[in-house]
Amino acid sequence: MAALRNVLEPLATLAVQRGLPYASVEELLRRAFVGAADAAHPDVLAHRKVSRLSTATGINRREVARLLVVLRDAQAVQQLPRRSLASEVFAHWVSDPRYRDRRGAPRVLKRQGRAPSFESLAQTITRDVHPRSLLDELLRLKLAVHDRESDTVKLVRDAFVPRGDRVRMLQFLGHNVGDHVAGAVANVLSDGQRHFEQAIFADGLTEASVREAWQHIGELWQGLLGALVPALEDKVGRDRPREGATHRVRLGLYTFDENTAAATTTNPPPRKTRKQS
User: Fold this and answer.
1) pTM for the full model?
2) N or C end of the chain: which has fewer CB within 10 A?
3) d(Cα 164, Cα 170) in Å, to the nearest integer?
4) Which neighbouring-strand residues pair with 274?
5) Helix boundaries (H) for the chain
6) What is 173-214 written as a DSSP string?
7) Partners of 110 in the beta sheet?
8) Is 37 exposed, middle or buried (0-12, 13-18, 19+ CB in 10 A)?
């Protein structure tokens, strides 16, 4: 229950701040419970399914029957998320050596022309969408700027976190946090080795030290990005034509900090840095 509380409290904050009523969240939770129970009992006979799922979830049978219909209808219309071509262009720009300068920073690119240019970069991702459309999307997300006088394009952010695009930010939250929690839960329910799940925790820091740590973390992430994106792209190119190429992977790095002064007790615990699994 303590673990669930830590997971649910930030989600409750999101719902309250965005005006989402409890009843709507409760409906999602009921669907999730019935879906999880259904997946956990794949061999139950059809005429016994409702009773079995009601027993497993504590939800009454009439409600379970309704939710099974809702879940079936939702699965029928569910679509795979579209590729984020803008994020792929961004990832190439910050990781491909052809589009980085000697210091490893993303190059300022000519908008058109032979490589390295934005046109050539966009065409390594797709030829189904015009490079100008991809550039317009990066400009809309305030991830890049276009100098009309020199007709060059420059990245202005070092991470793909679009400013002002609330829908895309919520999509990131759902996909990133959803996969993170799914991996952690799978580890708890198995031998703890199914997914990589590690964290470092430190307290007793000043705000200035936190900012310094963030800068260091950003530098480490850029190195990880530059190493992993090309390696994964090579594997995708190799595996895609093969049978069994149905797996996906998400790799992430997260940080969180807060001022704990309000929670300080008269006898604070000793300050230390520790690693958590």
Assistant:
1) 0.67
2) N
3) 11
4) 201
5) 2-17, 22-40, 46-57, 61-77, 85-95, 118-125, 131-140, 166-172, 178-189, 207-239
6) IIIIIHHHHHHHHHHHHTTS-SS---EEEE-S--HHHHHHHH
7) 117, 152
8) buried
In this predicted structure, what is the pLDDT of residue 265? 47
DSSP letter for each residue of 80-110: PPPP-HHHHHHHHHHH-GGGB-TTSPBPPEE
Q: What is the rounded distance in angstroms from the CA atom of residue 265 to the CA atom of residue 70?
A: 49
Compute the C-alpha angle 107/171/256, nearest 5°: 75
Are 252 and 180 spatial neighbours (Cβ–Cβ below 8 Å)? yes
CB 154 within 8 A of CB 111: no
Which of 34-43, 94-103, 107-116 has the least mean pLDDT?
A: 94-103
- Rounded CA separation 27/64 (Å): 12
Higher-pLDDT residue of 99 and 226 is 99
Q: Has residue 52 got a pLDDT over 90?
A: yes
Residues 6+ apart with CB under 8 A from 143: 86, 90, 155, 156, 157, 160, 162
